[in-house]
């Protein structure tokens, strides 16, 4: 179990009544989420329910039409309205994106860069941090995720589980306030899934703030202190994993779980 801080603090990320459409298709219909430091929140729901969209809206990879996004109490500043609404301040976008580092289902490593170069790329070229300092941190992170010996190989030479661990090291090398995982294990064979799950569990045990979209109910139950069930662009039910999985209230969640457990 994750121990919650006794003092209420500023949420790392707060989403208030977020609405997001792709053209005519309204995908998020008023979603609110609050992640305090150390929270591990799992987002579950059927394919197409808006989980990836919500995660991408959090770090401003997607625009949204209505509602607020706050990073450590700082509201995203917008210009325009409705389908024309966009963040108004590029520096703020970079700051938020750096601090909410994303791990994708398909790893998204650069094929032409070595593992070490992949991990160092953004801190050196986006954050302009000194190369020697970043390299030291990158090597320590590769050790931490168990692929310290793979620093000089290219992604194609590694298994999916190793590539995903490299992607996690890359996200950590940005020294983010929180990590956003979008189905981090669903592209992996079951035996490789476990090596990534071990890393995610270790990060949860360290008290890292994480939002995890996952189809793996056991992972959600093991690592999260809060689970959110999205259905058709709305939060249908949410709560601590023990109660949500043992006694779901919503028939839709019951039906979803009967196919997922
Ligand atoms: P989930 O991750 O829960 O499977 P998504 O957030 O990927 O759901 O998608 C939610 C809905 O939005 C789906 O109907 C999907 O087809 C649609 N969608 C996702 N991305 C786009 C896009 N870039 N353009 C248009 N529609 C999209
Ligand atoms: Mg998705």
UniProtKB/TrEMBL annotation:
Main subcellular localisation: membrane
SUPFAM superfamilies recorded: P-loop containing nucleoside triphosphate hydrolases (SSF52540)
Gene3D superfamilies noted in UniProt: P-loop containing nucleotide triphosphate hydrolases (3.40.50.300)
Keywords: ATP-binding, Cell membrane, Membrane, Nucleotide-binding, Transport
Record flagged with keyword Signal: no
GO molecular function terms noted in the UniProt entry: ABC-type amino acid transporter activity; ATP binding; ATP hydrolysis activity
Membrane topology: Peripheral membrane protein
Keyword Cell membrane: yes
Pfam family, one: ABC_tran
Tree of life domain: Bacteria
Span of domain ABC transporter: 13-257
InterPro entries found in the cross-reference section: AAA+_ATPase, ABC_ATPase_HisP-typ, ABC_transporter-like_ATP-bd, ABC_transporter-like_CS, MetN_ABC_transporter-like, P-loop_NTPase
Compartment list: Cell membrane
GO cellular component entries: plasma membrane
Similarity comment text for this entry: Belongs to the ABC transporter superfamily.
Full protein name: ATP-binding protein
Lineage: Bacteria, Pseudomonadati, Pseudomonadota, Alphaproteobacteria, Rhodobacterales
